[in-house]
Structures are given as C-alpha cells and as structure tokens.
Amino acid sequence: MGLFDWFFSRPPADLANPDIQAGIERLMQNIDPRLKALAAAPARLAPGVARTLEFCDAILAALPAPQDASPGHWRDSALLSPLFTHDDELRRIISRQPSVQEFVQEAPGEPCFYAILGARLEERQGFGIALNGDALQHDVPITSLNFERHRVYLPRRSADALDHALRWALFDQIGLEILARLSALKESQADLQEEIALLRTQQAHLAHRGIGDMFGDDTPSEEHAQLARLAERIRARQAALTQSRQRLLTLDDSLAWIATHLMTPEQLLEVDGLDYRINGVNQVVGPDEPGIDVHFNHFRCHAPHPRQGVLLRIVYPVAELLPRSELTAEIARLYG
Questions:
Q1: Is 212 helix (H, G, I), strand (E, B) or coil?
Q2: Beta carbons within 8 Å of 250's beta carbon, 6+ residues apart
Q3: Last-in-domain residue among 262, 290, 310
C-alpha cells in the first residue's frame, strides 16, 4: 500500500475492532477525558481513528527494513553510513541512550534489540573543489548533508514488537498535534477576550478624561479619532471571538472538531520522501557523478514543540554496547 492509498474511500469503521477501540480510548484520555461522558463520542471518533491508523500503517510500510547498525555492518547500509563517521561514534551514541539502558536492564539476556533511530538532517550550503573534466575547479557551490542530535527510541525484542510500538507512537503524536491545536484555539479565545477588555479600558479612559470634553467644540478632535479607531478594533476583535466560539464552544463542539481533524492526519504529521545522490563525504552530487542514491523518510511535527528529522529502523547487538562501567566513568569525567 502506498503512503497515501489510505486516502481513498474505506468501509465504515468497525467499533468492535480492538484497535479502533484502543485508539478511541487513547485519544479521549490524552486530549480530554471529559469526552468519555459523551455517549456519541466512540461513534463520532471511530471513522477518524480508523483513517489515522491507516495513515500510520502506510508510514510503517514506507519505512525501509531494519538496518544492521552493528559496528561490523553499518557501513554496508547506504542509509546508515551517512549518519555516522566511525564505529566509536555510533557505539557511543547508541550506548548512551536512556531508552537503551532501560531495555538492557529490563530484558537481560536479549542478544539484540530493534529500535528507531532518529536524527536531525540539515542541508548545508558552501563552496568546495570539483573535478571539471581533467581540471580542478575551485569555489564550486556544494550542498552537504549533516546529521546531528541522534536519538534512539522504542527499543524492543523483535521487529514486530517495534512496529507495534511505532504505530501507536505515530498515532499518539497525531493526538498531541490535535491537542496542541485545540489548546491554541482555546487560548486564542482567552487572548481575544483579554484584548477586548484592554481596548474597552482605553476607550473608557479616552471618553472620560476629566472635564476637558465639557469645553470641546463640534469639530472632530484627535481624541474622537482615537475613539473611532478603538471602536473599530473592538468590533473586529468581537467578530473574531464570535467566529472562534462558533467553531469551539461546547464539549460536543470539541468532539466534532477533533473528529474532523482526525480525517486528515497528513495535515497533522508531515512525512516527506527526500532523495539524494551523495558521495563519500555526504556532498550532494549529480546523477552522472560517483556516489550512492539514498531515500530518507523525513518527519515534521509541531507538538509539544517543533521538531523534524529522519527516522530509520535499526537492529543492534547488545554485546556491542559500551559497558556500564565505561559509561559511568565517562559521565564522571564530563560532570565530576
């Protein structure tokens, strides 16, 4: 199934489906537990939950197979080799991750683990040297790929367990995006109310500036012009507040708003395919130049704060992790 095949018409959502039931429960608990009091909530949310789960499944299907990140094999992966410079960097990054340390403690004896490797990708512009025919050309504009902020998430015992965890992690992220937008909408209403109150205070201050207005003539004054501008601003803010309240006023309105946004999950979690041809030092090269073709799945989300980067599934042998004693000594050197 292609990444957006889920968009086309599907049969009605099955409320008896355990996954849909679980999705509804997660959404209501994470966004607003009061939704559970609405008898119509499950039926209203079910179609959006089904579509969102299909979207998450399409993302999983588009991700490459787990990449062997072990020190002896990671360079053989066209996707992993651009992310690291040497074995020691890879081992230290993976070994330091709290999620990996927790997995090792909770699952002793496991030979390996499957996990999600995330990294921020930046395209850096600069100048370098290029071979033009038989001659070297200087100050040639180049684009380089830089990877930083590596993180390892969701370590699991098997690839299937990882896919299950990632599916619900993607689903929960979409729920976070909905919650953030819902909260912003409510905050905008509060901000508009506060701004209207301040404008009215200014309006009252100008209208009652002591006895000065008692001696005014019939010609428009600067104060009258300011009052007119303030009145217009107040009318505009009141119209915006009315429009906002029409979209979101009651708990039932919130439910309708959530159900609507669930039907377009691609607008909440952006996933793009990035294709490059790069050489051995991560410089983007032309189609006829020596290099390798790579395809990255790039994710962009906004809640709880803006983040973006590439995600890969990896498998890593536990025996290759740095021993805890070495990590403890490293922490002591850095912070002791």
A1: helix
A2: none
A3: 262
Q: Give the whole-angstrom CA distance, residue 189 versus residue 237.
A: 10
Backbone angles phi, psi at 109, to 5 degrees: 90, -10
Q: Is the pLDDT of residue 181 over 80?
A: yes
Number of domains, the chain: 2
* Bridge pairing between strands 307-317 and 67-68: parallel
Calculate ∠ Cα 318-65-168, nearest 5°: 85
**Boundary of a domain, candidates 262, 283, 304:** 262
pTM higher than 0.85 for the full model?
no
Contact 129, 138 (CB under 8 A): yes
Asked whether residue 281 falls in the same domain as residue 180, the answer is yes
Average pLDDT over residues 102-113: 93
Q: Which domain holds residue 65?
A: 1-184+263-336
At which residue do the structure tokens 């559970």 appear?
36
Residue type, 275: D
